[in-house]
User: What shape does this take?
Amino acid sequence: MTKFFCLAHRVILASVACNRCCFGGFGMFYAVRRGRKTGVFLSWNECKAQVDRFPDARFKKFATEDDAWAFVRNSLSPDDSEEQKNKHVPESQVKTNKRLHKSLDKAEDENTEPCAKHVKQNTESIPSVDKDRFSYMGEFVVVYTDGCCSCNGRMRARAGIGVYWGPGHPLNVGIRLPGRQTNQRAEIHAACKAIEQAKAQNINKLVLYTDSMFTINGITNWVQGWKKNGWKTSTGKDVINKEDFVELERLTQGMDIQWMHVPGHSGFIGNEEADRLAREGAKQSQD
Assistant: This one.
């Protein structure tokens, strides 16, 4: 079942809004590995203040304080260590370091089989990734997607899709969109790619950020009406992106996806990185 939350008015997921239990004094411990302030907190509100709208925040709740501190202090991934090194480095240098991972980002998708109508992903080529490498909003994994198309609507159109899971993440990818080259198709299939990757990692709870209201409205609202109307619009015309939304809806089955809108090019790092990956993908040749 899909849901849509506007960034400006979003409601924090109910699954993460657990406060300390008042019965018997047993409470949860909220560990923040990456946020405004790192450490272990005794209430969700304290934790939320450190991670809400913080780019690529990493936090989890634990039943014991020892486990929480272990997450903060002793379970740093190589990526986290690199971030600590870059803490006082100018942003331009940090972005340069991130580009060093570009070859890894592209390599994962070399075996993808293109299709004239929609993107078919080969999940066997997606590597298994440790759960601690992902960013979380409670139990939900966070991902940013974006699509782009130069010369949209023209003969020389070139479209690409970008999926961003976090700094230096092995699942980050920027690839050329197979088939018809349009911006709307690129936006839809960027979401498809992210969901494909999530399923390959046995992730079924996903917070998916996109700047495409077309994609969000399509999958959360319009698809059901189109299906009832024989894939016709309200004016009786064929739905242009039918095959693309059929694929997206198929992928959402069995997934709990929170669709989040983020304004494009407004300074959100995740969205900017997904856009960068999409533009890199558009530069690639089309098989």
Remarks:
- The first helix runs from residue 44 to 51.
- The radius of gyration is 20 Å.
